[in-house]
């Protein structure tokens, strides 16, 4: 970046210097030309007012010879014939009638012209005035052409260019450094919120990076906590299994206890399996589950199937289950929807009271979006826990959760599934009264997936076309 700014500044400076020098040269040459014409005019007018050429017959002007670089004098009569020229033999000279300065002098009294000489280096400047005797007096002088002026000044101009360029290199280096320095300082101290953002254009960029940085740290911390929790959760049933197995192994269980211990081993092993299943599920969702297959599903029908599956569990708890609403479609992954329904309904049974009820409703809301509500008449959740129950391994009543086969991961999985389907989840709960969890599905996922499929199709078509060619 530094290099680029530096280079660009130098290019701009070099261009500016060259253009300025060229411009100055043209202006200077213009003034130089004006000066010469002005001088010639003054000479011509002086001659006229002094009446030097009033009677050329009388005047011994034939003896005037032009010095090198000096003034050339020509007298032209009304026919355009040259009757005197200080530089050449007038008799051999062609008619001067068509010379622009002579023509102008005959017409208006004065005229001038500049013509290129045979050599590229010189220009001839002419000034002509009409004398009282009807002759035209023309004075002329040779001077450097712009080409010669440029050539003569080339060394000076190059010198000025080099000097200015060196000056520009130093300045541009300094400016580049002072421009980039705050950015470099910011990059070094990005993590420090006290570091001032000098350029306001960079503020959103810096805010975004800082946010990402914080998110990464938060994620890392969450993962660390999750790993610690997982280890702890796995350890408990494994310790129990190991303990009971050891007792049986050493024949310390006795015949009457062996069956009970085997039962405990079985129960803890099942617990481990459920836990590992949930962990796998969660880590798959975490990494953005890849084998999801979104289709149009009737959520009402799926809810009915889930209720049938959980009926036995509900009966054991003396909880009744009811399905309300009507057939409503969602664009979702079937397996994930089953998991979501199961987790919510299972919780509604497990955290219910004996004789309580669970009402599952699937319907369309006022906006036409399908929603799922799982409402129970159970123990409820007090407000301080309501935000946290979606966290991994967060349980309000740990012993009840464990006793009913909970892993503390069910709602974390639900939250992930909801996010993956671009749905929203809300919770309303009152201790001792019950809980209602509502998931609302939007049409966004379907739109996005359709867009993605269209893009894939057109990409494939272009690919086929290209390979076909
Ligand atoms: P668990 O496996 O412990 O049930 P979840 O993630 O499913 O884990 O739920 C987290 C916690 O939220 C539970 O331990 C429980 O305390 C609370 N909870 C979840 N659903 C309900 C409900 N329907 N009624 C009351 N409490 C609930």
What does this structure look like?
The structure is a single chain. The chain has helices at residues 2-49, 100-108, 146-188, 203-249, 254-286, 299-316, 334-350, 383-386, 398-403, 410-420, 444-468, and strands at 72-76, 82-85, 110-116, 122-130, 136-144, 294-298, 320-325, 329-333, 357-364, 370-376, 424-430, 434-440. The chain is of the alpha+beta class and 469 residues long. The strands form 3 sheets. It has a 5-stranded antiparallel sheet. Strand 3 (110-116) and strand 4 (122-130) form a beta hairpin. Helix 1 runs antiparallel to helix 3 (146-188), helix 6 (299-316) packs parallel to helix 7 and helix 7 (334-350) runs antiparallel to helix 10 (410-420). It starts with a helix and ends with a helix. The site of adenosine-5'-diphosphate has 23 residues, from helix 7 and helix 10.
Q: Brief overview, please?
A:
The chain is α+β, with helices and mostly antiparallel strands and 469 residues long. The protein is built from eleven helices and twelve strands.
Associated small molecules: adenosine-5'-diphosphate
Report strand order across the widest sheet.
Answer: 2-1-5-4-3
Number of β-strand runs: 12
Q: Between the first and last Cα atoms, what is the distance in angstroms? A: 42 Å
Number of helices: 11
Helicity range? 55-70%
Q: What class would the helix/strand composition place it in?
A: alpha+beta
Q: Determine the strand fraction and express it as a percent band.
A: 15-25%
Radius of gyration: 51 Å
């Amino acid at each position: 970046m530094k290099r680029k700014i530096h280079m660009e500044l130098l290019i701009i400076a070099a261009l500016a210097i060259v253009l300025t020098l060229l411009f100055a040269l043209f202006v200077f040459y213009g003034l130089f030309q004006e000066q010469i014409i002005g001088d010639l005019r003054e000479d011509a007018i002086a001659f006229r007012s002094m009446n030097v050429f009033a009677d050329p017959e009388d005047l011994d002007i034939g003896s005037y010879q032009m010095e090198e670089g000096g003034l050339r004098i020509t007298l032209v009569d009304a026919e355009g014939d040259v009757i005197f020229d200080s530089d050449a033999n007038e008799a051999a000279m062609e008619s001067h009638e068509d010379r622009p300065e002579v023509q102008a002098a005959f017409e208006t009294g004065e005229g001038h012209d500049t013509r290129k000489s045979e050599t590229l280096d010189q220009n001839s400047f002419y000034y002509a005035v009409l004398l009282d005797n009807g002759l035209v007096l023309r004075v002329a002088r040779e001077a450097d052409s712009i080409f010669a002026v440029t050539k003569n000044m080339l060394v000076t101009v190059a010198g000025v260019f080099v000097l200015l360029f060196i000056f520009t290199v130093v300045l541009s280096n300094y400016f580049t450094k002072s421009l980039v320095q705050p950015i470099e300082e910011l990059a070094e101290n990005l993590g420090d919120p006290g570091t001032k953002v000098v350029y306001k254009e960079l503020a959103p960029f810096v805010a975004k990076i800082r946010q990402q940085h914080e998110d990464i740290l938060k994620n890392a911390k969450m993962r660390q906590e999750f790993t610690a929790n997982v280890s702890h959760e796995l350890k408990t049933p494994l310790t129990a299994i190991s303990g009971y197995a050891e007792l049986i192994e050493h024949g310390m269980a006795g015949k009457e206890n062996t069956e009970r211990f085997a039962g405990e081993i079985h129960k803890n092993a099942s617990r481990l399996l459920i836990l590992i299943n949930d962990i796998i599920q969660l880590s798959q969702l975490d990494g953005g589950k890849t084998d999801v297959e979104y289709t149009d599903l009737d959520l009402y029908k799926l809810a009915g199937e889930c209720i049938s599956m959980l009926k036995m569990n509900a009966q054991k708890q003396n909880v009744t289950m009811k399905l309300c609403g009507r057939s409503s479609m969602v664009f979702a992954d079937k397996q994930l929807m089953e998991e979501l329904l199961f987790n919510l309904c299972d919780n509604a049974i497990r955290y219910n009271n004996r004789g309580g009820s669970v009402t599952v409703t699937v319907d369309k809301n006022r906006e036409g979006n399908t929603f799922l509500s799982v409402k129970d008449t159970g123990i409820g959740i007090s407000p301080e826990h309501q935000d946290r129950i979606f966290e991994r391994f967060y349980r309000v009543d740990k012993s009840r959760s464990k006793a009913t086969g909970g892993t503390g991961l069910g709602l974390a999985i639900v939250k992930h599934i909801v996010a993956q389907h671009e749905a929203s989840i809300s919770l309303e709960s009152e201790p001792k009264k019950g809980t209602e969890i509502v998931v609302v599905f939007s049409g966004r996922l379907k739109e996005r997936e359709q867009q993605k499929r269209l893009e894939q199709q057109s990409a494939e078509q272009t690919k086929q076309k290209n390979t076909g060619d």
